[in-house]
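Two proteins follow. First one:
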Amino acid sequence: MNTYKLVIPRRRARVEIPHPRIKTTIPPVPATKTILIQGKVPGSIQEVWVAQSLVILREPFQYQVVLYGGKQVRGGQVLDFLLTRFNTPVQVFGDRWHSLRTAEDAYNLSVLETLYGVPPVVLWGHELTSPEATLTTVRRRLHL
């Protein structure tokens, strides 16, 4: 008596070759999801780096200072950093959202200058590319 073994053909595993121009890695989860600055969630990783730089330089600051009702009130705004020793406002502008230098940005900066008596320091996203570059930029731009 002949016995036959039933052989089920296996499907070949499909091997995908990544395209040279397409990134196949998944970007890491931003650190801003778990890091808090003075109990508040930061708006960007650049704000985290600026806060770390100010701590390293031992410069006292307040984070996300609500002015004139904040973003919920027309004409209100949220200041990114206020250096309490010099009463100097500091804004972190990302290159994507603030690249056009809109009339709203100009108005907000003029309100800050009127309120604090000194022009606000604007730190641009292209200046804040890494924690080390941010420390150098903060030290240079804020004269610390």
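Second one, unrelated to the first:
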Amino acid sequence: MTPERIQQLLTLGENIAIEFKRCGNGIEADTYETVCAFLNRFGGDLFLGVDNNGKVCCVPKKAAVDIVRNFVSCIYYIYPNACRAKREAEITPENLEPDAKNPRIAAFFRNLYLVDQLGSGTRRLFKYVPFYSNAKPIIKEADVFRITVPLDDSYLFDALIGEPKNLFSNKHPSEVTSGVNTEVASEVIRLLQCQFNESRAEELMFLLKIKHKDDFRRRFIAPALKIGVLERTQPDSPRSPTQKYRLTAKGRELRERLNKLQNSLKP
């Protein structure tokens, strides 16, 4: 936070997200209540050494160290596990236990499609990393949360499809700034994993559990068409209401390779 921003907040005065505490030689008794109130809403800015009118009173230099130490110690006493791992173990999709700090708020934003399901990132790592390395990621929870993602160039998406160069360019991947990034490759892989012959967009959306058609066309259909693993049944009428999609020979070959790779990774 910059000095200019601090001055702006002091000028605004106290409100639902800004609180001033004078704190002469110690922490005022209701300081911790303010912290709890912030945590139960959406956070806020707490200024110590400022009176109720926004005037900076300062905290004695000798007292400042004790105030910080006592404040942190009290928070740790109230929430002893707030900054500590719940366990020391290797995390897998089978033993994953997502812990939402506020389940209701998490569910609210998830229903608005503003956030993903808690724990979905871990599951996606285990699902897609093997396509880039033929090995599973290692996630360990301890004092230091560590994720190890193995990589092997021979298992990159470009290599699987049989084209060592970037799929959108004749240049080498290191010479281009745009191309098949990890997100696009992951969406195409999801599409290839669906079991279908000739299907309409709505049918594919149902299989992939996608609700927004424009988003589906942008993330799935367009990249798959561009790299040649998907084709329209009516190429001359792309907007036909009876339009369907099917895998090309390249798409069917890639799906077979992906299935073999997945089977090889099963215990």
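SUMMARY FIELD: The chain has three domains: 3-78, 89-148, 156-265. The chain has eleven helices and seven strands.
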